[in-house]
Design brief:
homodimer; mainly beta; 6-stranded antiparallel β-sheet; 4-stranded antiparallel β-sheet
Chain lengths: 121, 121
């Protein structure tokens, strides 16, 4: 078993957001997705983002407020959210004093051009 | 954006462990992995398990103590762990009073028989 310890993970800053990508762990390179933790300081937010990958996230510490096209949705600690390729998003940490830690996996969605056949399995 | 709320998810019991599988959400059926939450009561443990799927998990509430072949490893809240196909495992919640919530994704590893070619990409 391999443990991926958040406290010792290599992190980089994207604006004020601390990002720890799992590509730093060779054991994860064969996964059918990429993964990261990211941490948003209190009363701060992620830079607006939009990308072709689907992104599936879980609020690990704190609750996330996720803005998609001006509509904000609160995702409670422990709950998850899915963003598709069309959804530009900004994640807010509305807590006055606690950092928000999110774990996300992301992958390119299947399309007719990357499937062997075009059925909907 | 779709939210998957743990508090309202359909759950079933596997012995004393509450399991909420994401197959209940049609939006997740095209994912390149399956996913679940599971919740272990205080001072309890999951049934011993072993399966061909790789399983990648994150401790969402509480810290997990994971036994693999008699070796126990503590995974702190927020950190993650990977179990491969060879690793029988039992997850313990050593807390006297707090439930342990884990989020896991799992998938069949690539093998020569399910790859189009046998290179190591």
């Amino acid at each position: 078993m391999q443990v991926f310890d958040y406290s010792t993970a290599h992190k980089s800053l994207v604006e004020s957001v601390e990002v720890a990508r799992f590509e730093q762990y060779p054991a994860t390179l064969g996964f059918p997705f990429k993964a990261m933790w990211y941490c948003i300081p209190p009363q701060d937010n992620s830079p607006p983002d939009r990308h072709p990958e689907y992104e599936f996230s879980i609020a690990v510490r704190g609750s996330a407020t996720v803005d998609v096209n001006g509509v904000r949705t609160v995702v409670d600690q422990g709950s998850a959210f899915l963003l598709d390729s069309s959804e530009g998003h900004t994640v807010y940490n509305t807590s006055p004093d606690e950092a928000l830690l999110i774990f996300s996996v992301y992958w390119m969605p299947a399309t007719n051009s990357n499937r062997c056949s075009n059925d909907d399995r």
